[in-house]
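INFO batch 0412 | record 1 of 1 | parsing
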Amino acid sequence: MTMNDSLEMVWGEIRSLGLETYIADLDAHGYTVIPPEIASPGDLAERMLTAVLDVAERRNGVRPDLETGSTHAGFKGRFAAFAPKDGDSPIGDLMQSLLFEDRVFEEALMNPVLLAMASYLCGYSVVLSSMGCFMKGPNKSTFFLHSDTPLPSPLPPQALVCNLTYVLTEFNRENGGTAFVPGSHKWCRSPEGRDAIVGEGGNPNAKAVECAAGSLLCWHGNTWHGAFNRTASGLRVSVPVYMSRPFIRTQEGLIGKIPDEMLDRNPPRFAILTQQGISYGYESQDDSIVRAQVAAKYLQAYGEAQGMGTATARGLYN
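INFO prediction complete | emitting tokens
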């Protein structure tokens, strides 16, 4: 598969899903909001919200209070260090590694809309770096602007990573929504100093995104983003699906960790998305041989399913 073939394939998916205007918005501003009727087919968003509330209750022993946010008001936790001295967590609580918690998260990863956007940004070899959940109640601290690309400036213009966030409760300024600097993905650098501050005395170009519950918020890895504090009652709940090209170190190490029953019930691309086509990270020559054989099996299945052939599928990782 040549670069032109890959572009034609993903553009065909974009057209069939009616995503052309969102791609244009993404290219121009570095982020876009895909509305619920396109982004969350059926009741996907509602089931995801129920699932993350269940996970939070299992992990923390208390079910989150969506209406008042009392369970997370002024939450400190391990991320309070990101705020000024004696501040609360600017991102609330982060629950990591959701993929294994409920089958709805497998469905969320395989959502054709999410995959078309991820493939447009990072190619057909894109893999899942992490899937977690942010829950933020009323708080005082804003989250500084940053880019997601894990490299020092200057950054490459093409996306090495991308973020596709399921917005499970409404986002706006009062609700502590994500802050973006439109067009910042084109500057190919990370913010520093005053440029990185959200709120009073900070970057005047940081804008609060507005999204209905059920939307998919997508952005280029270079785009400057952070978050406003939440002044409204209730909870801001989102599930970021952070994706990367396969040569980028992923946040979650999934190679060899996906149960066979999970792989068997999903299409061949699921194995590629969950890092099973990656053979690097070996500990010895023998381990390298085994890893390469396993990866080749999944790449072959993916290549056949996509109609690209095994050799071309392997070439995605070169």
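INFO post-check: The chain has two domains: 3-252, 257-318.
INFO record closed
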